[in-house]
Structure of ATP-dependent Clp protease adapter protein ClpS:
Amino acid sequence: MADTGTKTRPRAALKTARPPLYKVILVNDDFTPRDFVVQILKAEFRMSEDQSRRVMITAHTKGSCVVAVFTREVAEDKATRATDMARKEGFPLLFTTEPEA
Ligand code: TYC
């Protein structure tokens, strides 16, 4: 095969450049009002009204939906904050995180 000129970087350098990513997942439930879910998505994840409604409806119909992907700390922080906002209003809405791939 022809030499493409691409050099393999050391493992340590690659790891520093790309930390593992985590998905924030919105979980459906039977009690949280749709509009409240949309408000949370807009507030915590800075999503538009349109995007928020699509994600909410996907979770509603399929059971869950990936909201966004972040580094682990950011993903866990956002999932906790969003879940806490719902708890304060007495809703069982849940955001979880899991490693990507
Ligand atoms: N299923 C809820 C209802 O019908 C709305 C909802 C959607 C709740 C998505 C949670 O992640 C969720 N009121």
